Prior knowledge:
Pfam family, one: AAA_14
Keywords: ATP-binding, Nucleotide-binding
Helix content: 40-55%
Order of helices and strands: HEHEHEHEHEHHHHHHHEEHHEEEHEEH
Largest sheet: 7 strands, mixed
GO molecular function, one term: ATP binding
Protein name: ATP-binding protein
InterPro entries: AAA_14 (IPR041682), DUF4143 (IPR025420), P-loop_NTPase (IPR027417)
Strand content: 15-25%
Number of domains: 2
Amino acid sequence: MARYTNRKQYIDKLLSYKDKDLIKVVSGLRRSGKSTLLELYREQLFKLGVGKRQVQFYNFELPENYLNKNWDDIYFEIKNKLQADKPNYVFLDEVQNIPLFEKLVDGLFVTENVDVYITGSNAFLLSSELATLLSGRYIEISILPFSFKEYLTARDIDISNKYLNYEAFCFDYINETSLPKGVELREEGFDKIYEYLEAIYTTIVEKDITQRHQINDKRAFGNIVKFVASNIGNPLSPGNIAKTLKQDGQSTHHSTVEKYLEYLTASFVFYKVNRFDLKGKKQLATQEKYYLVDAGLLNVLTGKERTTDRGHILENIVYLELLRRGNKIWIGTARNAEVDFVCKTRTGDIEYYQVAWEMSSEKTVEREFGSLEKINDNYPKYLLTTDSFTQDRNGVKHLNVFNWLLEL
């Protein structure tokens, strides 16, 4: 199995910002491949002729790199090793572990001939202080676990073979994991993957959430996570989550629920998607939907009896792929219809997507096509399903979702 799957889109993006006067911030879930990405990128730098001594790499997950040191100790340590009159590339991995790390980043940024790259597994990395300090001076590259295409590549599957049973691979992708290291564990069996996911999730909850925000009621927090994970793709609000939990005999205030959801999205476990009123052309502030960073985590979050239906899981996969492709995404809503996704593409165009597992009945066909047909403009409209035979209707393009994911 390929140890690294060449994460080309991210490498290309980093290369396009090389030597530009911007701090490169690589963010994303723990273990989604940030450190590996920086390793691959350093290999590219060496290929481009950058000397080994022009590159410095610090991994602040390792306590020996930061214990008993202040930010300025690390700053001078790095500064003393800089190569004069040459470009220097400094990588700070999991930099949020250093108190006052923003001073370290800023100090290096204003130093001549230094190109700074930082990673963090928490969106709080770019919270108010740092964002204010660095406003307009950083570019964030948000990394996701393997796409379906990267996953198949990592498993050495030849996607040019048109007779592959994509549905079976998709079940593996959904039921196991899309996290790079987890894919490597396939050969050791599902239990190993499960343990790995459990360990990652525990670390996120312990290190990034409960310790950081001093959450004492871990039971309430766990129940909220479970509830959101079981309701992927369903409209939710802190109020209705609090109400449902109350019926279960737990009283958690909706403002607490709101805070917990914020922590979960800041740690990249869930992604929140707002609703967009198609008629009034404005974002709505209620009934958001949440999607999970890796479908495999459902095994850990909701237990073995995964209740989330496969249509919603497919919707989750499509959402992440739209995000990878650089879209801004909303749920489209109008008085008499709802569309799964309204996207604003990198070039500023609008596209609509509806996702369903399969066109199993006339009723499904009417419902899924109908949602898109009710939108009365000329932007592209796509219906994605697992059906092998697709047929367009009234300007709506019906595509096989596996071909779409693999861009075939």
